[in-house]
Amino acid sequence: MTGFLMARRVSPQSKAFDLLLAGGLTLFFGFLSLAQAQFAGVVGVALLVPLIWRRSYPELVFFGVSAIAVLQWLAGIELQAGNIGLLVALYTISVYGEVRFSRIALGIGGLGVLMATARYWANSDWRQQITMMVAFGSVVFGVWAFGERRRTRGLYVAQLEERAVQAERDRDREATLAVTNERTRIAREIHDVVAHGLSIMIVQADGGLYAADASPEQAKKALATIGDTGRASLTEMRKMLGLLKQDEQNELDPNQPRPQPGVSSLPELVENVREAGLTVDYEVTGTPRDLPALLGLTAYRIVQEGLTNTLKHAGPGARTSVTLDFGREMLTVVVTDDGRGGGVAPSSDAGHGLVGMRQRASISGGTVNAGPKAGGGYEVVAKLPYAGPADQ
Prior knowledge:
By secondary structure, the chain is α+β, with helices and mostly antiparallel strands. The chain has helices at residues 2-5, 12-37, 42-48, 58-74, 84-96, 99-120, 126-214, 216-244, 266-275, 293-313, 352-363, and strands at 279-286, 319-326, 330-337, 367-372, 378-385.
């Protein structure tokens, strides 16, 4: 009884359409029924009025209209224009009703065809009876099948929309997790940089203390190193706090800092990639200079990620080039490949690697652009200013 009594959720626009449809059918076909059978034409009107609630109660409307049609058959009232309400109700239940009731409605429609043929064409030739039975049966089944097809299509579209929404949620969640994980890793690496700088300051301070009396010049150099290192460490800390805006629980021992890779470690990285089977050309242009530890680490990680993506996606036989251009105001890092091997096209989706590269570059006030090249291949271009946002 739930399918009969529980109303479907229908939008105001759909309700208004159903009201106009039922009203229009009642005015037109109901008038024809009244003109055709006068008092008996009231039955035709009764078959059309319930269509106002066809989408709210599709099962109740169909079986209600069918009951009126049975009374019409029992009373011997001829078929009228208002009987079109039966077809509209059948279509409605096949689209909006429960599947089990839709199947029952089809059976009732077939039974109605047999009943109508037996009553209204009982005295006709058997050929005419078969013709009318086939004709009415085809109409009934066609209306039901059309509604069933629309139901199936609606369910399919709804599933596609749900999958799209779920995929978008998963993509957003994965992107958020990627950014969070990358920020955590960056914070830990900055922790190592700062801890390494503090260790240098401690060593220089101890050395300067012992050399203060015997060698004032050495003490001055130690103090100068302490000042430079302290300012650099403070700059890195400001960058971290300004971007991440969150506290990180550092699991590393600050008393045992690890050396961080920089641009000086790139030749070793390139050589390791060459040993893995990738052809890599490495070039440095401009006048090399000493870079802040964080900037050097950022350049190293961008090249590392770019080479990793080339190994994954460029295919066998691809050639790769890594270029470091030391300009006047910024370092430009370019990682490019020709993708001539297997030719696996890079995904258009910004993966975790690209998220990480952009996140690292943004800490130093830089940018990363990545995408396919004209003619094939892939290119990553990072522009990293020497003076980061905290230094300006």
